UniProtKB/TrEMBL annotation:
This is Exostosin GT47 domain-containing protein. Residues 135-252 form the Exostosin GT47 domain. It comes from the Bacteria. One of its GO terms (molecular function) is glycosyltransferase activity. InterPro entries: Exostosin, Exostosin_GT47. It holds the Pfam family Exostosin_GT47.
Length: 298
């Protein structure tokens, strides 16, 4: 397989963005990560677009949209559309990588879009990654079947989940807690600690179908459970997700899963999840699966 890197205007690759999420994350994401990786693949990259099987469109979609007020009132879209249209040679041979909720937000023709945060937009699912969390120097004792920390207003399934498990002694559903240690390390009310205290990390969908929490839990060695109407765990043809994670389409399914949870199995899934995150799905590791997807005729 040969891939040609399309030439894009410099403004389509902003050097930074005005807002970072999650709060602990560096100003770096999968869009920058894949471009760095593909440039190092000398056996794949070609300088001749005619001989290429695929053309890669290296736009930093997330930085662009964040810097243009999340495309509110279509801010920035006309300029973005114009520059992207200039860059694309053959849309049927083009693919791009985006993390932004809603994808590119412009017309890319028949281009294949690999997306980390689908809402209603189509796309091929990929990991939504962030900087690693700190881990304590000693093991954390398990206290809960499952926990969740975060906002509830980004999707109805979160509200339903909170109501269903309110007051449950083994399932902790909390509000927005800090994602760094600070003084709350001593109070054990930190996102990291609560996750580590769990057999399962609840990762309900929000605005998008995916969740940073899913891959954060993997990094912390806790079995993640994606909760939502779409199973967006990426690279299903290559990653044995049922061996390292859980999925529940509804809160009813989630309740049944948790009430029948095999704790020993959950611990094994968490340990294996960490190994997959470290060796297969972290920055620079996940990129090879894009090539595998393209080779399958995506």
């Amino acid at each position: 397989m040969k891939i040609y890197l399309l030439n894009v205007a410099g403004i389509l690759q902003p050097e930074s963005q005005s807002f970072q999420y999650p709060a602990h994350n560096k100003d770096y994401g999968i869009e920058q990560d894949f471009l760095i990786w593909i440039k190092k693949q000398n056996g794949i990259v070609t300088s001749n677009p005619a001989e290429a099987d695929w053309h890669y469109l290296p736009v930093y979609w997330t930085r662009w949209h964040i810097n243009h007020n999340f495309a509110t009132n279509d801010e920035g879209l006309a300029k973005l559309q114009d520059e992207v249209s200039k860059a694309i040679i053959d849309d049927k041979k083009t693919f791009t990588i985006t993390q932004f909720d809603g994808g590119t937000l412009i017309d890319t023709g028949g281009a294949v879009v690999f997306t980390a945060a689908r809402t209603i937009n189509p796309g091929i699912d990929i990991p939504i990654l962030c900087s690693p969390h700190r881990r304590p120097p000693i093991p954390v004792k398990k206290k809960y079947l499952a926990t969740f920390n975060g906002s509830f207003d980004t999707h109805p399934i979160r509200i339903e989940m909170a109501k269903r498990f309110a007051g449950h002694p083994e399932i902790e559903i909390g509000g927005s807690l800090p994602t760094r240690f600070y003084k709350r390390w001593l109070w054990a009310k930190n996102y990291n600690l609560r996750t580590l205290e769990s057999y399962v990390a609840l990762c309900p969908r929000g605005t998008s179908c995916n969740s940073f929490r899913f891959f954060e839990a993997m990094q912390l060695g806790v079995a993640p459970c994606l909760v939502g109407d779409r199973d967006v765990r990426p690279f299903k043809n290559f990653i044995p997700w049922d061996e390292i994670s859980y999925y529940a389409a509804t809160v009813d399914e989630l309740e049944e899963l948790l009430m029948n949870l095999d704790k020993k199995d959950a611990l094994k899934k968490g340990q294996k999840a960490y190994q997959y995150w470290k060796n297969e799905l972290y920055y620079q590791k996940w990129c090879k699966y894009i090539i595998k997807e393209l080779e399958q005729g995506t």
